[in-house]
Amino acid sequence: MKKKNTLIAILLMAIMALPAFAQQDRNKGIIKSSLIGLEYEVKAGFLIGGMAPLPLPEEIRAIESYKPTVAIDIEGNVTKWIDAQRKWGVMVGLRLENKNMRTDARVKSYRMEIIGDGGEKVKGYWTGNVKTKVNNSYLTIPVVAAWQVAPRWKLNLGPYFSYMINGDFSGDVYDGYLRENDPTGSKVEFKDGKFAPYDFSKDMRKFQWGLQLGGEWKAFKHLNVYADLTWGLNDIFKKDFDTVTFAMYPIYLNLGFGYAF
Fold it and tell me: Residue 18 in 3-state DSSP?
């Protein structure tokens, strides 16, 4: 019985010691990575921005409302410092992010493809109000240069590459009229609360890329505060999509916190 109690006590002490050994192994791994110039970080934040044409086309006469809605991101990255002073390095990350917005614009002779009551699609030129809803999810890989400006400040600049996991670009037209096929075609009016939906979700590109410019401030030993501006450089719509006659680019500011190991 005494031997049995002794064995149980030894097992309990071994189980209690496991987290400590795991922590020691993790600390050893972090120290080893630091010695060869590697740093790890996990980040979480929210995005503010939208899909915008540049410059604003003449068809859009006024932006009557804009709502960024809730958009979040989660990222893990690793930085490899390439000099002994750790001033310059390369950061590679993997980010899961949402890019959303809601807008209401007043337009004139705006190319549009609406969905009729029977599900048929009608193309033409719309004059009136257009409500747009964007809800997109991306898997993004930033590959940027890192510059340690000061002990607490770090800047980054470089390209990012995104794959769209889910995409929704849809909305409604209301309070106006549609000229079918061309600007002088048959006139179809939508007034007194009448509206027609549209959906361009299937016409969006899966792969997008752009530039990222960011800054990070070390608030505490492991806690960082960051801001990243991402600017898309290719049209969010496919090359053969001709309903929207101008290019639209995702432009978003990402604000959040990071934990550095």
Answer: helix
Given a cut of 50, whether residue 77 has pLDDT beyond it is: yes
Distance separating alpha carbons of residues 45 and 144, to the nearest angstrom: 19
CA atoms within 13 A on the CB side of 259: 3
Which residue's entry shows tokens 């590959």? Answer: 143
- Taking only the tens place, the pLDDT of each residue in 155-165 is 999 999 999 99
CB burial of 80-111 (b: ≥16 within 10 Å; e: otherwise) equals ebeeeeeeebebebebebbbbbbbbbbbeebe
User: Under the phi-then-psi rule, with left for phi > 0, alpha for psi from -120 to 50, and beta for the rest, what region is 242?
Assistant: alpha
pLDDT tens, residue by residue, 111-135 = 999 998 888 899 999 999 999 999 9
Task: Tell me how far the alpha carbon of residue 219 is from its chain's centroid.
Answer: 24
Global pTM?
Answer: 0.84
Report how far residue 10's alpha carbon sits from residue 214's, in angstroms, rounded to the nearest whole number.
52
Question: CA distances (Å), 23 to each of 15, 17, 27, 40, 42, in order?
Answer: 14, 10, 6, 16, 18
User: What is the Cα–Cα distance from 72 to 95, expressed in whole angstroms?
Assistant: 10
